[in-house]
Amino acid sequence: MLKVGDTAPSFVAAGTEGDFDLRLQLTKGPLVLYFFSRAFTPG
């Protein structure tokens, strides 16, 4: 589990608009990642 301030590991996620490559996105500048739990699941 990551702690506040840890560096996010590099990953590629498939999506309907194409793949999201964290390393590629970081070359374009800073970004904010937000993860949330799946709908209708506990916390």
Proportion of beta-strand residues: 5-15%
Structural class category: little secondary structure
How many beta-strand elements?
2
How many whole angstroms does the radius of gyration measure? 13 Å
Described by strand count, sense and barrel closure, the largest sheet is: 2 strands, antiparallel
Mean pLDDT: 85
Order of helices and strands: EEH
Helix content: 10-25%
Low-confidence stretches: none
Distance between the termini: 16 Å
List the total number of helices. 1
Shape: flat
Strand order of the largest sheet: 1-2
Account of the 3D structure:
By secondary structure, the chain is low in regular secondary structure. Helices cover 14% and strands 9% of the residues. The chain has one helix and two strands; from the N terminus they run ββα. The chain has one helix at 22-27; strands at residues 12-13, 20-21. It has a two-stranded antiparallel sheet. A hairpin with a 6-residue loop joins strand 1 (12-13) and strand 2. It is flat and about 35 Å long. The mean pLDDT is 85.
What labels would you give this structure?
2 strands, two-stranded antiparallel sheet, 1 helix, 43 residues, flat, single chain, little secondary structure
